[in-house]
Design a protein that fits this description.
heterotrimer; A alpha/beta (331); B mainly alpha (323); C mainly alpha (333); A: 331 residues; alpha/beta; 4-stranded antiparallel beta sheet; C: 333 residues; two-stranded antiparallel ribbon; 14 helices; 2 strands; 66% helix
């Protein structure tokens, strides 16, 4: 992938939070790039730093970007002054969030909230904005848009609220849509509908999508490339086919192994023992070491770097790393 | 909507009746007879006492006394124990004295608390926030009369703001404008004191505003508003504030009872002849009809205030608009 | 090859310590609370002041009541209205001399040792606050807990929850200060009446808090787990739910003690408090009102003391509220 053609290019991102317990590094050196029109998924458990990464693109987090850069269409968003960043927010980059129930302002109507984006970024008149809103509502699959437009968020179901969020996010035809766990809080059947909606919108507008999720099924059906995050770092990345079929990192393997397979009924579901380490107590070496079935000597002492498993497929693990010149001591 | 309203009103009225019965019982069960107020008065002969007791129905059983009270109250016939004058005619002028004090205090409190609270929330952790927090805590902790007397000490010695009574002696014959200005002049210190230290004063209210604002600023929809690219002013004042203000609209209705009960202490200090002072005097004199009437009025105001805040809440919050 | 899964027994969910250990965190919620609380410097100052107050109050009661070192009731007319840190006049009879040969806080209009009166008053004022809040706590927790836990059961045509909450609403509608005033004025003046009447007029908000917490807790998994294990109801309520519901109650109570002390002083100011010679800070303040120009220390000392103590209670209460609020703990710059 040529350097200059990327839509979004995150390099060496470090994000820290200040809490009562001290400085917490939520993201520790993440590289991520998205080409125009590409769908990239960022997966990981809760606490892996995937949401923080996504939200720091538009600087919506309370933490501090302590290092790294976030280039969008050539400009570094992490250093952009606020007024220019605001033009990009909602205009060229749209974002939808996990909790549709609380992400819409309860005291404004659905129509008012969508029109707000239109009048802000496209300077439409009130009547033009209203017409556009109705179109948008219809496009995202909300029936009787004239009625819904004047309703308040609490009068809509969860799935419909998420559709409204999507309408707000794509209203200005953004180049990039960031979807932070868009279906986690919804019923399974609605999940499928929402993902289908996103897919058709993506095709129609040629949007790139950064999808944050912990649901591997959604990734398999929707994304082209996937990055796996653990404890603030990327541990594996590549095309969905490469990563799912030939996972190189023990964590990814365990994640995939934990999915129940209807064709291979097991007596017990496999789960990964232990817990994600607390960000305040991170080990010196590989963060997954304590839970890894294949951990050996170099793991606890040095953090592994990403190596190339095959073209476009990278993993950060000493196990298969050909650069490792370590000779295990014989016991 | 109307059925709900009617039902609520009926419920409140019933509540009012219950409260009046309870307070009536409590007062009459308390030891101490009105005629004991002046036991040493040689002019009170036994037959006088008996006559007074008869005219005020004091020897009747308690429920009958209640009926008498209610009847007299609503026909305007209720007479005070102290001087036999109708209770309502004594309350009215005092009410009009208390009203400007109450209005002025409320105005000061509500116009000052919001900017202070909002700024403290926006600049959380800053010197402004910490400073106002400390000042607020101190004001909450000072006994109201303590601060008032301190201020009187200081004010009497340095400035010439009046601290006693409604108007300067001798202004009754002055022109209307002078009288009005004089009134306002006299209002300043008492209402300022009540605004600073009362339980519904600036100190408490600005803390609530701050807390509510902080709560709302942490909500998801504020993040959504930012993600849409809105500038910070619009996010804070358009999206966040609109939500943060909701509970205060309802609180407004609950202020009403303060008209009677809030002012007892301040009226005493500043010799402001209002309802608070009236209740104080009535209690001292064991003037049952007066006490009961004022209590009843306070309860009625409270219930009316609750009703008002319910209605306002329904008007303002789209989530509870009733079909 | 499948990796075996550790089961998490339901019992672990009920015991905070075991859960904390399983997570690799070595402290209980109580310890965590203390750690967060400690970081708030103002709240810690308040806590130290309160500790000091308790000591002073206990000592004060001892030294003025039992083993009389500082006598609050001795009248010394030759020595009236002397400023703080002054020494007794030569004309004073030797047996009336104050201990340590001086009046640290001066004397009042009857020549009584203000320091001694403040000592005596400290115990009374503090106990008014504590007892009043104790009463309101007992009533409030009982009513709120019953309404929250048994709410859905019906007693005749209405549910327990509706019944208790309507009762609470009615109680809330009474104009409180007015009622306190009326009751206190009509009953013989006694410190116990004041305590009781403040207590029975301030339980309502506690009841609401407890009910709200119970309603939320009732749905939580650990309660269902406890029921599934067959624990008797009273045990669930007392051992498991009430400790979890205490957070807002704790905050509320500290602030209510402050409020009770202020109310007592207001009542004394209006002349309805405890009668002399018994001293509370409230009535020392009220008496001092008349001498505000001539002997300002009679007014400033008790007022300042009330201010400091009430402020301390408020700071501790707010510190507790901040420490108990999980959202505020994750604050980032």
């Amino acid at each position: 992938m040529a350097e200059g053609s990327e839509l979004l290019s995150i390099r060496n991102l470090h994000v820290d939070f200040e809490t009562d317990a001290g400085l917490v590094p939520a993201v520790r050196g993440v590289d991520l790039s998205i080409a125009p029109g590409e769908t990239v998924a960022l997966v990981g458990e809760s606490g892996s730093g995937k949401s923080v990464t996504a939200m720091s693109v538009m600087r919506l987090i309370e933490g501090r970007i302590s290092a790294g850069s976030i280039h969008f269409q050539g400009r570094d968003l992490s250093r952009l002054p606020e007024p220019e960043l605001r033009q990009i927010r909602g205009g060229q980059v749209g974002m939808i969030f996990q909790e549709p129930m609380t992400s819409l302002n309860p005291v404004f109507t659905v129509g008012q909230q969508i029109e707000e984006v239109l009048t802000l970024h496209q300077q439409l008149s009130a009547s033009a904005a209203r017409a556009q809103t109705l179109e948008l509502l219809e496009r995202v699959g909300i029936p009787s848009p004239e009625r819904r437009r004047v309703q308040y968020p609490h009068e809509l179901s969860g799935g419909m609220k998420q559709r409204v969020m999507i309408a707000m996010a794509i209203a200005c035809r953004p180049r990039l849509l960031i979807a932070d766990e868009p279906t986690t809080a919804l019923d399974v059947t609605i999940q499928a509908q929402i993902m289908e909606l996103l897919r058709s919108l993506k095709r129609e507008f040629g949007m790139a999508v950064l999808l944050i999720t912990h649901d591997l099924g959604v990734v398999a059906h929707f994304a082209e490339r996937v990055l796996v995050m653990y404890a603030g770092k990327i541990v594996e990345q590549g095309s969905v086919r490469d990563v799912f079929k030939r996972a190189a990192h023990p964590y990814t393997q365990a994640l995939l192994g934990a999915l129940p397979d209807p064709l291979k009924p097991a007596l017990r579901l496999s789960a990964i023992p232990g817990r994600v380490p607390s960000p305040t107590m991170l080990p010196a070496g590989c963060a997954f070491c304590a839970r890894c079935a294949h951990a050996f000597e170099p793991c606890p002492t040095a953090p592994p770097a990403l190596f190339e498993v095959s073209a476009g497929h990278r993993a950060a693990c000493f196990l298969r790393d050909p650069r490792l010149t370590f000779v295990p001591t014989l016991r | 909507m109307w059925r709900f309203l009617a039902r609520t009103i009926v419920q409140r009225l019933l509540l009012l009746v219950v409260i009046s019965i309870v307070s009536h019982t409590v007062i009459h069960l308390a030891p101490g007879q009105p005629t004991e107020v002046d036991p040493m008065n040689p002019m009170m002969k036994a037959e006088d006492i008996a006559r007074i007791r008869k005219s005020f129905h004091l020897d009747d059983p308690i429920y009958l006394q209640y009926v008498h009270w209610m009847k007299d109250l609503f026909t305007g016939e209720l007479k005070s124990f102290r001087d036999g004058l109708p209770v309502l005619s004594k309350i009215w002028p005092r009410f009009f004295n208390s009203l400007p004090l109450f209005a002025c205090t409320t105005l000061i409190v509500w116009t000052a608390s919001f900017p202070i609270g909002i700024q403290a929330a926006l600049k959380r952790g800053s010197k402004f926030d910490r400073g106002t927090t400390l000042v607020a805590y101190t004001l909450i902790s000072i006994p109201g009369f303590f601060l008032s007397y301190l201020l009187i000490l200081w004010v009497v010695r340095s400035f010439h703001l009046p601290v006693i009574g409604l108007r300067t002696f001798g202004t009754e014959s002055a022109t209307g404008l002078v009288r009005v200005m004089d009134r306002i002049w006299h209002l300043v210190i008492p209402s300022l004191m009540a605004a600073l230290t009362g339980i519904t004063g600036i100190a408490v209210l600005s803390r609530y505003v701050r807390a509510q604002m902080l709560d709302v600023l942490g909500q998801d929809y504020v993040r959504t508003a930012r993600a849409k690219g809105l500038d910070e002013d619009r996010v804070v004042y358009g999206h966040a504030l609109r939500n943060a203000l909701l509970p205060f609209v309802t609180m407004f209705g609950l202020l009403l009872p303060g008209l009677i009960s809030g002012s007892v202490i301040f009226e005493q200090i500043f010799a402001w002849p209002g309802l608070g002072l009236l209740s104080y005097e009535a209690i001292l004199a064991r003037d049952f009809p007066m006490i009961l009437t004022l209590n009843f009025m306070a309860a009625a105001l409270t219930l009316f205030g609750i009703l008002l805040s319910d209605i306002l809440y329904a008007l303002v919050d789209p989530r509870i608009r009733l079909e | 090859m499948s990796i075996p899964v550790d089961p998490v027994p339901a019992i672990e969910a009920l015991a905070p310590r075991a859960e904390a250990e399983a997570l690799g965190i070595a402290e209980t919620p109580a310890q965590q609370l203390w750690r967060t609380f400690r970081k708030d410097r103002l709240a810690m100052v308040g806590l130290y002041v309160l500790l000091g107050l308790v000591i002073v109050a206990l000592l004060g009661n001892l030294l003025t009541g039992w083993w009389v070192v500082f006598d609050p009731t001795t009248v010394r007319l030759p020595d009236k209205l002397m400023p703080p840190l002054s020494v007794p006049s030569a004309a004073l009879a030797s047996e009336l001399r104050p201990p340590f040969g001086s009046y640290p806080f001066g004397t009042d209009e009857l020549g009584r040792n203000v320091f001694a009166r403040m000592l005596q008053g400290s115990f009374v004022s503090l106990s008014v606050g504590v007892v009043a809040v104790g009463i309101s706590l007992s009533i409030g927790v009982t009513i709120g807990g019953l309404a929250g836990f048994y709410g859905q059961r019906k007693l005749g045509p209405v549910s327990i929850d509706t019944l208790l909450m309507r009762f609470t609403d009615v109680a809330l509608c009474f104009p409180t200060f007015f009622l306190i005033l009326t009751v206190v004025a009509l009953l013989p003046p006694s410190i116990y009446n004041i305590m009781i009447v403040i207590g029975i007029t301030s339980w309502m908000s506690i009841a609401r808090f407890v009910r709200a917490e119970f309603l939320a807790l009732r749905e939580q998994d650990f309660v269902t787990a406890a029921k599934a294990l067959g624990l008797p109801e009273w045990r669930i309520i007392f051992r498991h739910m009430i400790p979890n519901a205490m957070a807002p109650v704790l905050v509320s109570s500290t602030i209510n003690v402050a409020h009770a002390i202020l109310t007592e002083s207001a009542l004394s100011f209006l002349g309805f408090g405890v009668r002399p010679p018994y001293a509370t800070w409230g009535n020392i303040l009220a008496d001092g009102r008349s001498y505000i120009f001539d002997a300002p220390w009679l007014f400033l000392i008790p007022g300042g003391a009330i201010l400091v103590v009430v402020l301390a209670f408020n700071l501790v209460g707010e510190g507790l509220r901040d420490a108990l609020n999980p959202k505020l703990r994750k604050r980032a710059r």
